[in-house]
Amino acid sequence: MTVASHLNRYMLNQTLAGLGMAAGVIGAVIILIDFVEQSRTIGTRVDIGAPELVGLTMLKVPALLETTLPFIFLFGVLTALFRLNRRSELVVMRGSGMSAWRILTAPMILALVVGLFGTTVLNPLGAAGNAAFEARRDALMNVRRDPNAATPVWLREANVNGFTVIAATSLAEGDRVLQAPAFLYYAVNEDGVPALDRRIDADAATLQEGFWEVENAVERTPNTPSVELGLITLPTGINRQALFERSRSPEGVSFWDLPTLIASANEAGLATERYELRLHSLLALPLTLLAATLIAAAATMRLQRLGGAAGFALAGGLTGFVMFFLQELLGSIGAAGALPPLTAAWAAPAITALLALTYIASTEDG
Q: Which has the minimum average pLDDT: 146-150, 285-289, 294-298?
């Protein structure tokens, strides 16, 4: 038990050292690239010094680290195990009767723990940092929302007899006021065929808690004259978050806000595939890091005396890139609605982890 605890502690330290080296190199590269990008897009348009550009870049660091975590684990564990292999320490460990599973216990547990940290802590920090970055960038460049730029709004909401379609020319005043809205009430018959039951047009509709406050409403029903209703209220299950997040990028939403956002978007009849895919991708982050760790282990557990260790390490790196490419490809297909978000987010790391486990088991147990 003492030997196992010492081994786990030693492997943990070696893995952390490898991860530190990988994080330093990858982090420095992405920060430098982002700094150059900010210098090109912001520094050439406004009078801003290098320290403030560095501050803007640092606001994006949590999000950038979250994005590159799989690469950090892939190359960090590759580095750690390759160094142990070159120093013949793996030979000593295997010669003393320790299995590959015992050697890899600490790196695998570390991958799961860091994955949970990345999902629950680093992602919210990244979302907050990105929001602060965008606000600061807009302030520096004097970006203002054009109140005359009308963006059509379409919402759909289920009701007792069928559903309601809400169409408006734009959304204004803190994402609560619909301009020139039309409320189209459809009734669904026993065969599931919808038919327009009535229509309410208005100058504006303000979203309150549980209802719309509609100004200068005019009701129209088939085969009857229109009726001017004036100021009325219409019940709704749509909340302000559904309106506010309707066009926000899923990457800018915190992990803790995604379930509420998905529920509110469903109530509003909005498409939720992108948000569901983002939620599942964050939930799958621990498995993704575990898969990257197992790929690195499969590529470097081959003993140095057998030769070809460098070639196997290179193959492991390429395999990791294939996994990340497949994950992005499935994510794009899932965002288009052609794959369920659960499958699109979990398939690539799950398959890769199983293949790596199979390879390690076959070399370990024959």
A: 146-150
Residues in the chain: 366
Domain regions of the chain by residue span: 2-142+274-365, 153-244
Q: Which two tokens stand for residue 262?
A: 């998905």
Confidence bin at 107 (pLDDT 50/70/90)? very high
> Which of helix, strand or coil describes residue 200?
strand
Three-point CA angle 11, 17, 18, nearest 5°: 90
pLDDT at 2: 62
| pLDDT at position 18 over 90 | yes
DSSP letters for 290-350: HHHHHHHHHHH-S-GGGS-HHHHHHHHHHHHHHHHHHHHHHHHHHHTTSS-HHHHHHHHHH
Burial of 338 (0-12, 13-18, 19+ CB in 10 A): exposed
Task: At 36, give phi and psi (nearest 5°).
Answer: -65, -40
Distance CA 190, CA 306 (A): 73
Query: Which of 281, 265, 266 lies closest to 335, judged by CA?
Result: 281
Closest C-alpha to 278, from 59, 67, 72:
67
Q: How many CB atoms lie within 10 A of CB 231?
A: 10
Output the CA–CA distances (angstroms, integers) from residue 223 to 183, 209, 261, in the order listed: 18, 34, 40
Residue 219 banded pLDDT, cuts 50, 70, 90: very high
